[in-house]
Amino acid sequence: MVWLAFLQIVIGIIAIEFPSFKYLVYAHVFLGLVILGLAHYNNLQIKKTEAPSRLKRIVKSTAGLATLQIILGAVVFVNVLGVGVPFVGVISILHLMVALAIITQASSVATAYDMWEDKEYTK
Q1: How far apart are CA 90 and CA 43, in angstroms?
Q2: How many domains does the chain contain in total?
Q3: Whether 61 contacts 105, CB under 8 Å
Q4: Is residue 24 part of a domain?
Q5: At 19, phi and psi to the nearest 5?
Q6: Which pTM value belongs to this model?
């Protein structure tokens, strides 16, 4: 999920920089939906484990952020299609900020979960 989120951000930047590459917008949308699914899948799977509560809370908030991200992205996408959306600049910045939060939290959980699984945590 971390590398997909990274690729998603890179594709988004390229799509903004080169608007003639319209297919990149659709690739960005597709990856967003994949990340949304992965975030919720990870949340469900980690809930079933004995992982520390802190990891479970971070995974749950990451899934919530992924859901918010889809909503923000849909508003930006509607604007890209030509429908005038008020405050689209602010929404775009929020979209970027949430993307950075998702990649940060996903990488944090990936590392912490591996450490927990390998019994590197101490109580």
Answers
A1: 29
A2: 1
A3: yes
A4: yes
A5: -60, -20
A6: 0.89
Per-residue pLDDT, 89 = 92
Q: What is the pLDDT along the chain (123 residues), one digit of tens a residue?
A: 999 999 999 999 999 899 889 899 999 999 999 999 999 999 999 999 999 999 999 999 999 999 999 999 999 999 988 888 899 999 999 999 999 999 999 999 999 998 988 888 666
Token pair recorded at residue 54:
């802190």
In-domain check, residue 123: no
Residue 122 domain flag: no
Alpha-carbon Rg of the chain, whole angstroms? 16
Query: Is 1 within 8 Å of 42 (Cβ atoms)?
Result: yes
Q: Is residue 57 part of a domain?
A: yes
Domain limits for position 85: 2-117
